[in-house]
Amino acid sequence: MQKYLLGFFTLLALWSCTPGGITESTSAERDIYFFDIAGFFDAQIKQLKADQLKANKTVKYNAKRDVLQNQSLDYEKELAVFVHSDINKLSWREKYQADTLSTAGKIQSITYKALDDQLKTQKIAITFANNQIERIAIQNHLKSIMASTWQELEYRPRKGYQVHGKQTMRLSGEDEMGIEVEFVQ
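Above: the chain's sequence. Below: its structure in token form.
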């Protein structure tokens, strides 16, 4: 099982890596064209650390499964994959279509869809309830000559998150992986 977990976390780490790692930046330091995913998750990470929130975590790799109860997690590492799905880059400004649904002057949802299938982050859907974020769902896709990787992310503030992925390698077949985390109050 440890061999599979090591492989899974290696894939997850490679997927979410960007040069320099996570940096703390405010919207004043960078241009914000879309919902600020990186800023939102930086704030969530700080809050989770301050609250010292523990979690029940299930890790799946193909048919293998490992369950960890009442764990202290490194939320900066755990949520890096969400932070690195931010689409606020000047060169991507015209590469996403935004759709906002409002009812009675209140935003219900915001959806961003990539207009270019070569972009890693293909879709971001943010759902609101009572002017608060209820759910963020992200779909990422990477494709190369050697591999194709799909990733679905879901985050629910104060409740937990899920990361599900599938990687198809030309030489070694298909692997499925997943992490489900439920915050313990």
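Residues 2-16 form the longest helix (15 residues).
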